Hints:
The protein is mostly beta strands. Helix content is 9%, strand content 50%.
Amino acid sequence: MRKLLLLFVVLAMGSIGVKAQSLVINRTEGNPVELNLDNLKKVSFSEGNLVAVFNDGTNDSYPLSEVSRLVFSGTTGVGVVEAMDGKLAYSAGRGIAVIANSQGSKLMVYNLSGSLVMQKVISSQVETVDLNGLQKGLYLLKLDGKTIKIVR
Length: 152
């Protein structure tokens, strides 16, 4: 489950076009590790490890059992990114929601008056939903019985 959650975070950030300066790997023990994204070619998961491959061909490996959280620092061009139990990430700057692990669930979007303004059945393991058709304002996104507030 942890592997899937971490993969979702990496996919979500790539899918919504986050421009970040570094990826911080928070570990259960020891100091966090900060990886400069300009030098990072790819992040993958292999045999229970998070593997960071750098542009110069070298790589570092971190056991997933020691990784507690991945954080992008120094972000620019993104309004707010929120996550709900590892199932939803949202970029206010791009108006895109990325949903994972909710295949068959219904995403419902309500305005602050309580009116349903959009709904979508999630049909794939990782799916992006474009919310740019909505007027700018505050909305409530409901997915799998949980609700978050977003700014569009």
